[in-house]
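Repro:
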Amino acid sequence: MLTKQAENGTSHILPSGDQTATHATLTASLTQPHQVLHFTGHGAYNSLDPAQSCLFLEGSDRLTLGDIVPLDMSAYHLVCLAACETAVTGDQTITTEYVGLVSAFLKAQVGCVVSTLWRVESAASAILVVQFYRELQQGQSPSLALKAAQTFLRTAIRTDLIQWLDWAIPQLPRSLSLILESERELITMMTIEQPYSHPYYWAAFTLSGL
């Protein structure tokens, strides 16, 4: 899912699998004066050819590092890449210093980028990201908002999570609410008191930039 927030605070959502989430549509939209780009889907780092590291779009379309670097995204305060391996970089066959998706967005003058270091679990990541945006709406800076969201996910007990899900699910798009509804059912059957305490669930998310 792609969400772009404009200067007036409104958001435009392109669901994964929707024909509007094509390379042409997205690159054209990225030149508009939006403030936030949120990507939920799949990403990959190409160690043999870093410029081909990409976010997967509709069908066979890709948004590659090479597509991002030339853009002027100075209007964007935040890019949130809730996808796998988006923070990964390397030094194999480097022909440019911008060898990862994060550094490509920073080169395009984005204020800061939230990304992941490994393949993330869908439901736990959804909870973390929604809580991250909730913290932002309460006036936290991106760095403090991410830290708070990670702390919430790491320390939340089962009853807190169920209460949080009961609040969040009715407000979310159907595709996301279905994932969290299933997760709520699983949590109610768990015996572990803090289901997401392991770093696997929350430590993959990192913030780069201001």
